[in-house]
Specification:
mainly alpha; Rossmann fold
């Protein structure tokens, strides 16, 4: 991996290279959308889609629309909505139109657009592009099973496509409540996917589909294309799992355009599936799938986004680490690899660590404060003295932590009051045996005699007392001292830690450790 500050490798594409992406559009006319459902925390696959749409829009100077798909009242919550907004803000993925920003196509919550969907559905029905279907679920299933048995296409068979007025009235007299189905064209649907090239769906594989339930509730199959049309979305970048719905949406876009609603179908690009362990699609239930885990662990937003960008795209073959500005500069949707991308948590951690190393001390310190507050190392109010101490301590862990959340365990000993300071029982049992207590006592006596409390003097005094006088090897000499003053076997560099802890606190902890009962 390379420094995030290294220059981007690929040459930017020219306007002439982009006719297959932009068509007749000017770059600034690009409009993409990210449409999350507010059902909980974002999934890393959703975040990857948001990132690619954001980078695409920013690369061209276009518009990113945030649209909340909240028509499923049983699953959507206000907490879920707040989580979506907070997550995107934490990531630094900004939107140009949408909730809390506004825009010419408001409202941007689907639950506030139900009258729009009802009007469009009525117009589709009136134009003969949709029709009432009175088939029950059991009837549809029975005919589907029969078709499968005869090796025929098993989708909806168009039973209600051409009912006359009397037949519809007869079904209503039976108490049947119709759904509204879209009338798919009797021809293949062919389109060029920005990631996968030309794709064709035969008519028999894309049957008529339901737009509106019998209770009048609009389905995703209606609301998503309608919103894309009315919001003039030019490009749809989304996961490969939605590819099967694309021919339906293209046909519906064409029908809407004939009614004067929207410019026709946008260009589609289907991003590779994100795979988890065992070559299975990464599920929301899998460890590492939820964005909240990364926030809690103290990942850097730019580190996580850098890794997610690698799930299907790369800035160069020999480079994994880059900034979001660099990604925006050279992002080309045509360079996305259509093959499934495997989520590798260890590589994600390594990418994040590289970004963490690139932070300057002031930035690292500021980012550590909320994490240390969350872990209880720092209180809600951080004193000037604590902030100054953290600024001095941050360089000691800069190269040793992979996430901000790891700093609490390493730096907590500096901020805890002596009366609340405790030794890790496992580490103390291993290192504070009889020999360890001897080492601690010798360290205390040597440090107590120091005239200058500074790292070089501390190191010289301990090496003299423990390595030269007691004849111990360094790896055996300093472990007991580390446990006595930091509470743990693993800590920042010992001599620097003692300097930051101060003479009085260091000596008190060394004296207290001598009363440890020893290893059982």
């Amino acid at each position: 991996m390379t420094d995030p500050a290294a220059p981007a490798v690929p040459a930017p594409t020219t306007a002439g290279d982009l006719s297959d992406v932009l068509g007749d559009l000017a770059p600034e006319q690009v409009r993409v959308r990210f449409p999350p459902s507010p059902t909980g925390t974002l999934h890393v696959g959703n975040v990857r889609s948001a990132l690619f749409n954001w980078a695409f829009a920013r690369h061209f100077g276009g518009t990113l629309v945030l649209r909340i798909e909240d028509t499923d009242a049983a699953r959507n919550t206000e907490e879920g909505y707040a989580s979506v907004i907070d997550s995107l803000r934490w990531l630094g993925i900004t939107w140009d139109e949408g909730p809390e920003v506004g825009g010419p196509h408001a409202p941007y919550k689907q639950s506030e657009r139900l009258e729009i969907y009802a009007d469009v559905a009525a117009r589709l029905k009136e134009a003969g592009k949709a029709y009432e279907c009175f088939c029950t679920t059991d009837e549809v299933d029975a005919r589907r099973d029969a078709a499968r048995a005869e090796n025929r296409a098993s989708g909806y068979d168009g039973h209600c496509r051409d009912l006359d007025q009397d037949q519809r009235a007869a079904y209503r007299a039976e108490g049947r409540v119709p759904v509204l189905r879209f009338r798919m064209p009797d021809r293949p649907v062919v389109f060029t996917d920005l990631v996968r090239g030309e794709i064709s769906f035969l008519a028999e594989h894309v049957p008529d589909f339901v737009l509106v339930r019998g209770n009048g509730h609009p389905l995703y199959t209606l609301v998503n294309p309608v919103d894309d049309a009315l919001m003039e979305i030019t490009h749809v970048l989304r996961g490969e799992d939605l590819l099967s719905s694309t021919p339906r949406q293209i046909a519906l876009h064409e029908a809407l355009a004939e009614l004067g609603l929207g410019p026709g179908a946008p260009r589609f690009g289907h991003l590779p599936i994100v795979m988890g362990e065992g070559n299975k699609r990464l599920s929301k239930r899998d460890a590492g799938a939820g964005l909240g885990e990364y926030v809690e662990r103290g990942f850097l937003p730019e580190g996580l986004l850098n890794y997610l960008a690698l799930l299907g795209w790369g800035i160069a073959e020999d480079r994994d680490v880059f900034t979001m500005d660099e990604m925006v500069e050279v992002f080309d949707i045509r360079r996305v690899n259509p093959n499934p991308a495997r989520f590798d948590l260890k590589k994600c951690e390594a990418i994040n660590a590289a970004h963490l190393r690139a932070l300057d001390v002031a930035d690292l310190t500021e980012r550590l404060v909320p994490m240390l507050q969350a872990s209880g190392v720092l209180g809600a109010e951080v004193t000037p003295e604590q902030r100054a101490l953290l600024t001095e301590a941050a360089p000691l862990v800069h190269e040793r932590i992979g996430t901000l959340g790891e700093a609490g365990d390493m730096l907590g000993f500096l901020f805890v009051d002596d009366d609340a300071f405790v030794l890790d029982p496992t580490d103390a049992a291993k290192l504070l045996d009889d020999q360890g207590i001897t080492v601690v006592k010798a360290s205390h006596d040597a440090l107590a005699a120091l005239g200058e409390w500074a790292t070089p003097a501390i190191e010289e005094a301990l090496r003299t007392a423990l390595v030269e006088d007691l004849g111990l090897k360094p790896r055996h000499a300093f472990g007991p001292v580390r446990v006595a003053v930091t509470g743990k076997r693993i800590s920042p560099p010992l001599f620097e830690s003692l300097e930051l802890l101060g003479r009085e606190r260091s000596l008190r902890r060394l004296a207290a450790a001598q009363d440890h009962p020893g290893q059982a």
